[in-house]
Amino acid sequence: MSLESVPEAALTGSLRDYRSPIGSDLVGRTAPFYQWQNLRRQHSVWPYARSTATAPTARCQARTDSGSPFTGINFASQDYLSLSSHPEIKQAAIEAIQTYGVHSAGSAALLGNTANSIALENDLSDFVDGREIVLYPTGWAAGFGAVQGFVRPNDYVVLDVLAHSCLQEGARAATQNIHHHGHLNLEGLTRKLERIRANDTENGILVVTESLFSMHSDTPDIGAMRAICDQYKATLLVDCAHDLGSIGDDGRGHLGLQNMFGAADIIIGSFSKTFASNGGFIAVKDRATAEYLRYYSATHTFSNALSPVQAATISKALQIVRSDEGRTLRRKLMDNILYLRARMQEAGLEVLGDPSPIVPVRVGTEALGRFASRELAAKGGIANLVEYPAVPQGGARFRFQVMAAHSREDIEEVVRVLEQAMKSADLEYRASYESV
Ligand SMILES: Cc1ncc(COP(=O)(O)O)c(C=O)c1O
């Protein structure tokens, strides 16, 4: 394809442009999004909604959202400990199907729990210092349900500006009193709380953060946040979706590394990364709080419970996470993370954040990112492109997600193809913009 033929409209614009369409025809007014998306698709600069045609292993086969097959070294799956194809986990899922069938067939508030989901609650509780566990159908549902379940219209939510969509949407559903502080900026957090408390000492304040931010791979000082929350009588929520199970010698993530499990009033997590399944949880400090959530957080009460297959899969994954095998896998994962980051840096690429299974690599403008993503896939590398508005404008990046099963060769090869892809993208970008 002649690279100059990519129209500017396919290299500019963002999802944000189509978020608030105008007009009385609710359905018809969505069409401009498809036109823009399709233009990008036609020029192979729409790298989203791809599907795997094999398990999400280190080398995998996949398809674009138009159905074109491609293969490559896979750094786009969040199977951090490579448990998705673990024989014992597959066996646990098969046994669950044989015993319970495949369906929970109800909300956990009615008859949707199974022996497997009850066992999972107990096992997970043991892993997180005996906290009470409430299960959710997805991590997103847990994050949303945690904020919506506790916060009422007169309360306040103060979020790190980069907190995940589930937490932001939960806040929007609960109250109009929403404040953001700069990413990891604890002075900003303090200023917000000070201002709120200067006018309102009656209502609640929920402070929301993540123990590992999923686009930036960085971590707050949770002890310092606890102290600030105490000063202003605020409640602290920590989302540990990405680091629980994958980080720390014992797999207890940054809350464990910082010895801060007791500091968070509310912990939410996901089973869709390290735990080889779908689902999420909220961990709170006592039974009374958990029981309240079971009937007042909508995504638990009014959504079907985890299936018995999911619960059995997650329990077995958790058992492995806590075992010597899990420890070995985490060490292998961290070796891979450090190796990938070092090789990227040697290649002159800018790696962001701290070592974690998420390795963000800066690309630059959205146009450059789109070219680089097309080139990377063509050369046999698979990594997710993250663009505005998920990250700041002009801050497009690849999010490499590392797995324990990656080999040194996988890492060396993906860095090599990324280097080539970035060079080609740069030429395409210049050609494209110089010809405008
Ligand atoms: C920080 C964070 N919280 C929550 C979620 C939602 O988890 P799930 O994929 O299980 O719905 C994600 C996943 O994208 C996440 O990155």
From TrEMBL:
<dbReference type="InterPro" id="IPR015421">
    <property type="entry name" value="PyrdxlP-dep_Trfase_major"/>
</dbReference>
<dbReference type="InterPro" id="IPR050087">
    <property type="entry name" value="AON_synthase_class-II"/>
</dbReference>
<feature type="domain" description="Aminotransferase class I/classII large">
    <location>
        <begin position="73"/>
        <end position="418"/>
    </location>
</feature>
<dbReference type="Pfam" id="PF00155">
    <property type="entry name" value="Aminotran_1_2"/>
</dbReference>
<dbReference type="InterPro" id="IPR004839">
    <property type="entry name" value="Aminotransferase_I/II_large"/>
</dbReference>
<dbReference type="InterPro" id="IPR015422">
    <property type="entry name" value="PyrdxlP-dep_Trfase_small"/>
</dbReference>
<dbReference type="GO" id="GO:0030170">
    <property type="term" value="F:pyridoxal phosphate binding"/>
</dbReference>
<dbReference type="InterPro" id="IPR015424">
    <property type="entry name" value="PyrdxlP-dep_Trfase"/>
</dbReference>
<dbReference type="GO" id="GO:0008483">
    <property type="term" value="F:transaminase activity"/>
</dbReference>
<keyword id="KW-0808">Transferase</keyword>
<keyword id="KW-0032">Aminotransferase</keyword>
<protein>
    <submittedName>
        <fullName>Aminotransferase class I/II-fold pyridoxal phosphate-dependent enzyme</fullName>
    </submittedName>
</protein>
